[in-house]
Each structure stands twice: as C-alpha cells, then as structure tokens.
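Hi all, long-time lurker, first post. I run a small reading group and we've been trying to get comfortable going from sequence to structure in the token notation. Rather than ask abstract questions, I figured I'd post a concrete chain and ask someone more experienced to write out its structure so we can walk through it together at our next meeting. Sequence below, copied exactly:
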Amino acid sequence: MLDLILAIAHHLAVFSYVAVFAAEFALLRPGLAGPRLAQLGRLDAAYGGLAGLVIVLGIIRVIFGAAGWEFYVGNWAFWAKMAAFLAMGLLSIRPTVAILRWRKAAAADAGFVPPAAEIRASRSFVHAQAVALACLPLFAALIPRIYGI
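-- Answer (accepted) --
Happy to help. Here is the structure in token form:
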C-alpha cells in the first residue's frame, strides 16, 4: 500500500510540475509586463518548489518503494532519467535569474518591459528544458523493462 501511495504522490507532483512548466512556457513571450510578469514570477517559484517536491518524493519512493534501491542503482535508464531532470534544473537557472531581475526592475518602474533579446534568450533555455522534459517519460518507461540487461 505504501508503494501505491508513493507512486500516486510522485505522479501527481510530476504532472503538476509539467503543468506549471507549460504555463511558464506560454507566458514567457515578448511584451511581457505588469501583472503577467508578476504571474510568471509566481509560476517560476512554484516550478522550483514542485521540482523539489518531485525530487523528495522520488527519493522516498526509491528507498521505501516496493522495488527498493537495489533495483535502481544498476539501472542505466534510471540514471539517464536523473540526468535529464538535472539538466532541466540547470537549464532553469538562467530564466529564473532573469525573471527575478525583471521583477525587481518592474518593482522600481511600473512601466518596465523586459527586453525582447532577454526574453528570447530565456525562451531558448526553456525550449532546451522541454527537450529534457520529453526524455523523462521515455526513461521512466524503460526503467522497469531493462533491469538486468
């Protein structure tokens, strides 16, 4: 029963993480200003919090789930999934720093609009995150199917 609860919690956290990522992806566009910029900042904070929750639940699931750590430690697909998630985290740093900088500028000047070049640069990192995100279900599906190969 614990394994089922952990799996459900982990999946709900992952789906929430993906939903917030999609919302952030949609909002990060030229002309971003005012309330939309504040909304993007809140979404980015939620994105970071959900990433942390996914990690914590994943660790708990690996340690206390039915398969146990031994199942995962030698599974290359598990480590590939971890690498893809790490890549998403690293790729999110630059957009997060930009969003924090833009929100600070908007607090000082209500008419502030982030420069189009900065939005373009941040979007390129978000696009790269989307590629890493697309790898997660692929590796997740491979994990239980390649043990011992």
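A couple of things your group might point at:
The chain has one domain: 2-145.
Helices lie at 2-27, 34-64, 69-73, 76-91, 93-108, 116-142.
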